[in-house]
């Protein structure tokens, strides 16, 4: 469909008429975008700017036989996005006259006043070559220069000199552009799977496609992409595939510029719904965004594969490095050898060879037999020095994928090899990475195909489901590596003791495989795991364990972070679901790896401590043959007291003074604190001579949890929690756990676990002293409780979380527990505490959990008379919290 005619430049371009024409053109572009081909739009905008510049060149009297106006960079390629830079080169033969210099200044000033992003340089040929020699970016822009206005003979001579005297050899230019790409990728942590990717510069983005073109243009001295096909570096099908990826990414970038109203290449949350709508994915919302991002991520994965393959081809040709490397035939796997012997072949011929750190197929037809694809991976696992696949073999793999007519798992030989790979000590390392990277996993397991590129529009999941699952498998594999064992010693120890670690890898593969289908992904994934176990003829007990792990893969994380694991009843309920130490070991290792693979900012020492404490408590519970909860509570209190007493006596305190102090404390205090904490609190309280010295404020990490513990000992103080929460928020600190306890004689002992917003403990001495002083002044009422509210961060403004307050069962009948789900925001806990202060309620405990943009917090409260809330009080609390948070 042909769009309506575009606006034309007026006969004389002034500031007013130019702005009007540009505004009308932007509206035309937005309308034309709905139906027009992206190449047409990009070229049309470039031609539209050409017409303007040609007219202004005449208008400012610059039409001289001594000057040329060139487009360079992206504009030189003849394509422009709505707010792309317009990069210009004014080339002169003789120095500019004063009049010409003034005209150039006025021309550029008008372009800036028209709000165009213009970059320009005024140089002669020698200066161009000198700048190009000094800067590969300038050299690259000269490869794509295009005459807009001026003397054509001068332009032709300039083109000839650029070709003849280009200051970068093919080798040097390739190495410089490769280093440039590697540096750019490193800026994005080497991954395409960013929540808010840069469509132009992220790995697999438009810049990676352009890099291939630049190197080809320099090497073949051509402006045509088709030259890659003519010289045998890319097939016609691969070129078409690359163009399809380019068109999708270019359409996303074009829509992004329109949506942002400026030059913006970051696909920020702010713009994703609007961009998805402009691209025709449906009304703005979560579903349309996830559909768009699925296409985006599939495209960048394809670009990454082609970019890597083609650059490797260039390296082999330009650097001639491939020919210098020794070729080492690689023996077939044990499985393949045994298969050959069954067929009467004593020693099968190698199918693959190692060239440097790459693996290559010896014969082009090797992948015509489907099970050879899995054999290929098993051979990689047998040789840990292999890091990548040789370029020609990547092409063979890509062709083999297109020839598959059924999933690889439908072949019994492939199934045997896949299990052999998972059982191999190195199978989940490089081999699994390449299996994921080159889409063989999607061709092995049909359900995996559905999660490829499956993005979740939230702040919790930083990666697509397939990339997250790959990272989870990688994390588990690292438990085996000696260089990583110090990071997670308990996981390494438990995994080393497993008889069948491959079951842990299978649980990892299936834990999220049903996401995006609707329904409970844990239940659907459990069914998929059982089907896999049956198809692969796993023993029934093995299949049942994998299925159980998939069904309950969130159980340990939820229990540790959202429940009071100091309560033996909570541990008992968790242990009753787990049932066996074997399940506990697998679940613990899976949970740690899962959290770390979800989002790099999620994991911290506090979470590690919670999970490890729950693991040990459950292990002890299962070993004691399910003891009575009350008996277990008394035993733990006695243990804590005995250990803390030893620490205090060794520090020089008297047993009688310690016993007198502890006589004022409740049993709950000893249950909920570790011996090191009890000793730390006690020794400082024992040194308090009078109430005038209060509040006692301690900050440290006596429990070695990698967090900051704030302990406050004070006379009974109304709404102390609300005051402390407000101070912590004003200091940009977040509460992760709180225990509000009272002594038997009118004092409070409140413990808060706090972290900075980057998940790190508070270590700066000046910040610590500032916090102590502010807390002291507020609690002594020397200064008011902070009341300012910080602005909602940009990334949170695009999410709508319905505030919910649900009351849950609480073991103590005199207490009320409720769960709060709300949009996470600065000062959330302080606002909730303010509501409870207004309603005259006591906060006894709080567990604060942030899941991306969503806060999922647990509070335990009582009325002013230390009773559970009535139905009316619950309703009032729910209404006021929702009102306070939704304002």
Automatic annotation (TrEMBL):
Activity regulation annotation text: Uridylyltransferase (UTase) activity is inhibited by glutamine, while glutamine activates uridylyl-removing (UR) activity.
Gene assigned in the entry: glnD
Superkingdom as given in the UniProt entry: Bacteria
Pfam family, one: HD
Start and end residues of each ACT domain: 709-789, 817-887
Source organism per UniProt: Pseudidiomarina sp. PP-1MA
Family: Belongs to the GlnD family.
Reaction equations catalysed: guanosine 3',5'-bis(diphosphate) + H2O = GDP + diphosphate + H(+); [protein-PII]-L-tyrosine + UTP = [protein-PII]-uridylyl-L-tyrosine + diphosphate; [protein-PII]-uridylyl-L-tyrosine + H2O = [protein-PII]-L-tyrosine + UMP + H(+)
Cofactor: Mg(2+)
GO molecular function: [protein-PII] uridylyltransferase activity; guanosine-3',5'-bis(diphosphate) 3'-diphosphatase activity; phosphoric diester hydrolase activity
Record protein name field: Bifunctional uridylyltransferase/uridylyl-removing enzyme
